[in-house]
Design a protein that fits this description.
The complex is a heterodimer of chains A (299) and B (363). In chain A, helix 3 packs antiparallel against helix 6. In chain A, strand 3 and strand 4 form a beta hairpin. With 299 residues, chain A is of the alpha/beta class. Chain A folds into 2 domains: 226 residues, 3-Layer(aba) Sandwich (Rossmann fold), CATH 3.40.50.620; 42 residues, no CATH class. Chain B is α/β, with parallel strands linked by helices and 363 residues long. In chain B, a hairpin with a 6-residue loop joins strand 9 and strand 10. Chain B has 2 domains: 193 residues, HUPs (Rossmann fold); 123 residues, Rossmann fold (3-Layer(aba) Sandwich), CATH 3.40.50. The chains are: A alpha/beta (299), B alpha/beta (363). Strand 14 of chain A pairs antiparallel with strand 10 of chain B. The complex binds flavin-adenine dinucleotide. Chain B: One of its GO terms (biological process) is fatty acid beta-oxidation using acyl-CoA dehydrogenase. Chain B: Its cofactor is FAD.
């Protein structure tokens, strides 16, 4: 019985070296170019260019730096519509080694809990090949602004959660030890933790590299793995998308103007100095104590 | 909270499901009191004020949760929770809880929720509150709305948390209909600071800490204080002057700073001004920057997008200077001037300097 098994064994693969890092990124509309329909008051998304969520670029750069220093592999992972492949390809162009897109109708309408479920499941799949050392995310996205998906992933995967990190002071792969600086109220916490961990990177902590020519060329041709919910390892579709989302958006509405219309200061025929005086009169009439506040001794 | 706004889901079947049996006995409104290095974050008291209103509407109790070391500072925080309206205070004290760390805090708060079953849990949208809320909501598998700007109880006695949607014009109201507790974070200064009543007191409920320091992986090696004197104290200033893209370039921000200085106030700006690199992020006003509640707010060359609006609506008096008579900012300003900020700001600065006298000029 022993004989055939030994024969069936493949020659041992070289033990993968360095860090196994996954960076979760999101494709978002470029907020600088969003316009609002003048009549319906709704966002006009058509034709608005998409970008990688700007906060995610700090996470990606930090991941690439660690890889350059310690060796290893950086995978970028995104959940989104098929067109989110563009964002992943851009990340490959910046130097990521490989890309995975999880896309499935069943993910549509995910809130942050359902999003962290889908991403954590896919991360579990990626980790089957080789355990993940660090998962990176941006601090938050510019379209949702919740900052909840990172902690959600950490919790689901049992990773040590390190949010709002401004710098990684040291990393010891052998000891699986990491020391980071974490922004907190009124200062910075220096934390020692252990791999595997999840890091959400603070903005303006590094500068995203310009992709090398080789990376750009590779990115154009490199395959982006496209996974359905099933491919990603989702066993229970009830936990995905709208159905897996405990939050429900019940009402979307335009804010109402203040009941009392703004009092407009007339400017016709007045010099700027006169307008200034008129405005001050109105201010002091509305709040007679303002003058005292303005002239109070200053520290 | 949904990452992207979903369409109004009123028509969606199954949305109005009955609350599952296991959540029926979830009751009371809880506020997590953020104590760091002995100091209670003011947002916690702001939330207590709001929590009191929600609890009164629901006819239930308002509870505060205080987690920290066994110390005088913790004791003081507990006492204060009653002054701010708590009927009961849930307390877990242990040396391992001296500094905030995600793991033990998540454990403690999750345990408290599982044991005492609140229907609403509110936290400040601070670095600590956001770090903790995300973990706790995921552990409890419940809904969490980030950065709510308004909280209300609807006819079905559910919590509706309102926040701006992406894009700058619309608000949405989010519910966690079939899950408990209903969780939300709220940014500092979004809710008004209530007046404490030192004559009030209430019940204390202690719970034990079930972890051991040795089991907690992450250690705090050091805390490096910011020495914040150089940072803007925008959120708490009485008078704020801000500039937006209407100022056209970085140099013109000087006009905003000059006026703020004469008025003895702080200055700030809209988000694109920060994105352009004309000002640092701590100067940003709005949903994703500082929420302000000054006595007087002067906005120059700011269009009044919803994300900006929700950050300034708590101001007592809002003055808008904008060349566009149809700018949205005039929808919520008290006083408006349709004028070029580049000429009006210096004129106003001078007029104020004259009016306020030599004292203002000297500083
Ligand atoms: C998720 C998200 C979060 C956001 N968070 C924030 C936030 O926290 N804070 C924030 O401010 N924005 C935020 N924004 C951006 C917001 O939607 C608006 O884009 C932004 O507030 C617009 O800034 P602005 O008014 O300075 O610029 P614009 O919208 O470009 O307005 C410029 C205004 O200046 C006027 N103007 C032009 N010339 C003059 C002149 N010479 N004198 C006087 N007026 C003049 C114009 O009429 C116009 O009204 C956020 C957006 C998103 C998507």
């Amino acid at each position: 019985m022993d004989e055939p098994i030994i024969e069936a064994l493949e020659p041992p693969k070289p033990e993968p070296k360095g860090l196994n890092i996954v960076v979760c990124i999101k494709q978002v509309p470029d907020s600088a170019q969003i316009r609002v329909h003048p009549v319906t008051n709704t966002i006009m998304r058509q034709g608005v260019p998409t970008i990688i969520n700007p906060y995610d670029l700090f996470a990606l750069e930090e991941a690439l730096r660690l890889r350059d220093q310690y060796d290893g592999q950086v995978t970028v992972l995104s959940m989104g519509p098929p067109m989110a492949e563009d964002a992943l390809r851009r990340a490959l162009g910046l130097g990521a080694d490989r890309a995975v897109l999880i896309t499935d109708r069943r993910f549509a309408g995910s809130d942050t809990l359902a999003t962290s479920f889908a991403l954590a499941t896919a991360l579990g799949k990626i980790a089957e090949e080789r355990p993940i050392d660090i998962v990176f995310t941006g601090k938050q996205t510019i379209d949702g602004d919740t900052a909840q998906v990172g902690p959600g992933i950490a919790r689901r995967m049992g990773l040590n959660q390190l949010t709002y990190v401004s710098a990684i002071d040291s990393l010891d792969l052998g000891q699986k030890a990491i020391v980071v600086r974490r922004r907190s109220e009124g200062g910075v916490q220096v934390l020692r933790s252990r791999l595997p961990c999840l890091i959400t990177m603070l903005e303006d902590t590094n500068t995203i590299r310009r992709g090398s020519i080789q990376d750009l060329l590779r990115a154009a041709r490199a395959p982006v793995a496209i996974w359905s919910a099933e491919d990603a390892g989702v066993a229970d579709p009830m936990k995905c998308g709208l159905r897996g989302s405990p939050t429900v958006v019940k009402r979307v509405f335009a804010p109402s103007p203040r009941a009392e219309k703004a009092e407009m200061v007339t400017i016709e025929g007045k010099a700027p100095a006169q307008i200034g005086d008129a405005l001050i009169d109105l201010l002091f009439a509305r709040d007679p104590k303002l003058e005292a506040v303005m002239t109070a001794p200053r520290p | 909270m949904a990452e992207a706004p979903k369409p109004p889901a009123a028509s969606r079947a199954g949305m109005k499901k009955e609350l599952p049996e296991r959540f029926r006995d979830y009751k009371d409104v809880w506020v997590f009191i953020e104590v760091e290095r002995g100091r209670v974050h003011p947002v916690s008291w702001e939330l207590m004020g709001e929590g009191r209103k929600l609890a009164d509407k629901l006819g239930c109790q308002l509870a505060a949760v205080v987690i920290g070391p066994k110390a005088e500072t913790t004791k003081r925080a507990i006492k204060q929770t009653y002054h701010y309206g708590a009927d009961v205070c849930y307390i877990v004290e242990h040396a391992a809880l001296t500094d905030y760390r995600n793991e033990p805090y998540t454990q403690v708060l999750t345990n408290l929720v599982d044991t005492h079953k609140p229907e609403i849990l509110l936290l400040g949208a601070t670095p600590l509150g956001r770090d903790l809320a995300g973990s706790v909501a995921t552990t409890l598998q419940t809904g969490l709305t980030a950065d709510a700007t308004e909280l209300a109880i609807d006819d079905d006695m559910c919590l509706g948390a309102t926040r701006p949607t992406f894009g700058g014009t619309l608000l949405c109201t989010i519910y966690s209909l079939n899950h408990r507790p209903q969780m939300a974070t709220v940014r500092p200064r979004v809710m008004a600071m209530p007046t404490p009543d030192p004559s009030l007191s209430g019940r204390m409920v202690w719970d034990s800490f079930k972890m051991k320091e040795a089991d907690i992986i992450t250690k705090v090696l050091e805390f490096v204080s910011d020495n914040t004197s150089k940072d803007a104290n925008l959120a708490y200033a009485d008078i704020v002057v801000a500039g937006g893209m209407g100022l056209r370039n970085e140099g013109n921000l000087r006009l905003v700073r000059n006026l703020a200085q004469v008025l003895g106030g702080e200055w700030g700006c809209s988000r694109p001004v920060v994105q352009k690199g004309w000002a640092t992020a701590d100067r940003q006003i709005g949903q994703t920057g500082n929420t302000i509640r000054p006595r007087l707010y002067i906005a120059a060359g700011i269009s009044g997008a919803i994300q900006h609006r929700v950050g300034v609506e708590g101001a007592d008096l809002i003055v808008a200077i904008n060349t566009d008579p149809n700018a949205r900012i005039f929808d919520f300003a008290h006083l408006g001037v349709v004028a070029d900020a580049l000429t009006l700001l210096p004129a106003l600065t001078e007029a104020f300097a004259r009016r306020l006298g030599a004292r203002a000029l000297a500083s």
